[in-house]
Design a protein that fits this description.
Distance between the termini: 15 Å
Number of helices: 18
Structural class: alpha+beta
Radius of gyration: 22 Å
Strand order of the largest sheet: 3-2-4-1-10-9-11
Shape: elongated
Number of domains: 2
CATH topology of the largest domain: Glutamine Phosphoribosylpyrophosphate, subunit 1, domain 1
CATH superfamily of the largest domain: Aminohydrolase, N-terminal nucleophile (Ntn) domain
Largest sheet: 7 strands, antiparallel
Number of strands: 21
Strand content: 15-25%
CATH class of the largest domain: Alpha Beta
CATH architecture of the largest domain: 4-Layer Sandwich
Length: 468
């Protein structure tokens, strides 16, 4: 895998569900298209016609996994879908979701965005009693908990199961008769409820509603379980109330700019991040240039607040896969140049402010700056629209180990020297909160502060399997 492509926080997963529409599978397919940015490793859809559950999934992008014939075989008026980037479990078809099983009470499909931090402990308990697992992902733990529950109703079985797990989850369940959405009590990952004529829709982000012309109704609340069946919609709040700590990095990088999450528009928040960054780290320069695509809104905000002209001095190739074959004759900065290229007519002879959302290991930033200098920049000033990343995430984002995060082991000045920028400035934690205060949450900022809202448990020793 390209070291350039891997030097990021990787997207997690996206879920989509629809109940009560004759074209449920087709609409789920379109919904997953809108959520493709949340996972490019595998995708899948499960549907039901009230009698049985049908499913199709595979490795790769939504467009590569599904054909028209595949969609036609997904019968019924209810469906859930999933796009995946592995956080727990290997990259393998057996770990693709939705996870579909038959058990004593019928069929059930599960789609999960998040990470169960006590999954290894729970799995060991089940295996000690002879349980057999089909996959290496934490989502299967939830299925085993459901199957072993003594509760009679579906919502009680789900409630009892989720009482056993710790960590983050935005979940969709599908049975022959119902679709159920559940969000963990801390609300780490986004999940919203929408309406499409007579049908109900649930998605990780509201951009999926826009594509199918569904109406946004509200967020699924932290700790809420929503059951959608032939009787309508029922809401349950069965868990003790916890501190609301949605992931602030959803605003910084993961969510699509046109989505509304945690009570605010993502694009608007990113512009505020850039404006705060300009206040905290001003510099005399000729042009503000974003690292596309996630750096664009923050760069607009920086330019507006500073009065320095904005221009797209770096172009991104959107058709690069996860791997590629490098030529034998080495091309300078090949890994970065296959995906990004500087426009010398915009950059040459200029003092350039480069805006990016984060620095992980620093290797990509170093290559980008060298590429910009090669395009003729007189000065390069790096500005990051988030605080230094000093800790890994255990709640559903694939991040390196702490000792691989450059800000955890080096000072800002040391990082500046490593990436070869003239100056380097990060947004402060205080500035971050001033930019995201519109949504009114306390947020999970553990990657910047090391303050984890949920006890890590099994992750305290060697890190979770997701970091292997």
């Amino acid at each position: 895998m390209s070291p350039f492509i891997n030097d990021r926080f990787n997207d997690e997963c996206g879920v989509f569900g629809i109940y009560g529409h004759p074209e449920a599978a087709n609409l789920a397919y379109l919904g997953l298209y809108s959520l493709q940015h949340r996972g490019q490793e595998s995708s899948g859809i499960a549907s039901t016609d009230g009698e049985r559950i049908y499913s199709h999934k595979g490795m790769g992008l939504v467009a590569d996994v599904f054909t028209e014939e595949d969609i036609e075989r997904l019968h019924g008026s209810a469906a859930i879908g999933h796009v995946r980037y592995s956080t727990t479990g290997d990259s393998h078809i057996r770990n693709a979701q939705p996870f579909v099983v038959e058990y004593s009470r019928g069929g059930i499909a599960v789609a999960h965005n998040g990470n169960i931090v006590n999954s290894q402990i729970l799995r060991a308990e089940f295996e000690a009693y002879g349980s057999i697992f089909q996959s290496s992902m934490d989502t299967e733990i939830i299925v085993h908990l459901l199957a072993s529950s003594k509760e009679t109703s579906l919502v009680d079985r789900i409630t009892a199961s989720l009482r056993r797990v710790l960590g983050s989850y935005s979940l969709l369940f599908l049975t022959e008769r119902a679709m159920v959405a559940a969000r963990d009590p801390h609300g780490f990952r986004p999940l919203s409820l929408g309406r499409l004529k007579g049908a109900w829709v649930v998605a990780s982000e509201t951009c999926a509603f826009d594509l199918i012309e569904a109406e946004y109704v509200r967020e699924i609340e932290p700790g809420e379980i929503v059951v959608i069946d032939g009787d309508g919609v029922a809401s349950y709040k069965p868990f003790p109330e916890a501190r609301y700590t949605p992931c602030v990095f959803e605003f910084i990088y993961f969510a699509r700019p046109d989505s509304r999450i945690f009570g605010a528009n993502v694009h608007a928040v990113r512009k505020k991040l850039g404006a705060r960054l300009a206040m905290e780290h001003p510099v005399e320069a000729d042009v503000v240039v974003p690292v596309p695509d996630s750096g664009v809104p923050a760069a607009i905000g920086y330019a507006e607040a500073s009065g320095i002209p904005f221009d797209k001095g770096i172009v991104r190739n959107h058709y690069v896969g996860r791997t590629f074959i490098e030529p034998k004759d080495s091309i300078r900065h090949f890994g970065v140049k296959i995906k990004l290229n500087a426009i010398s007519d915009i950059i040459s002879g200029k003092r350039v402010v480069v805006i990016d959302d984060s620095i992980v290991r620093g290797t990509t930033s170093r290559k980008i700056i060298k590429m910009i200098r090669a395009a003729g920049a007189k000065e390069v000033h790096m500005r990051i629209s988030s605080p230094p990343t000093i800790c890994p995430c255990y709640y559903g984002i694939d991040t390196p180990r702490r000792d691989e995060l450059i800000a955890a082991v080096q000072s800002v000045e040391e990082i500046n020297r490593f990436i070869t920028s003239d100056t380097l400035g990060y947004l402060s934690v205080e500035g971050l909160y001033q930019a995201v205060s519109e949504a009114g949450a306390s947020y999970c900022d553990a990657c910047f502060t090391g303050q984890y809202p949920v006890d890590i448990l099994s992750a305290r020793a060697p890190q979770l399997a997701l970091f292997k």
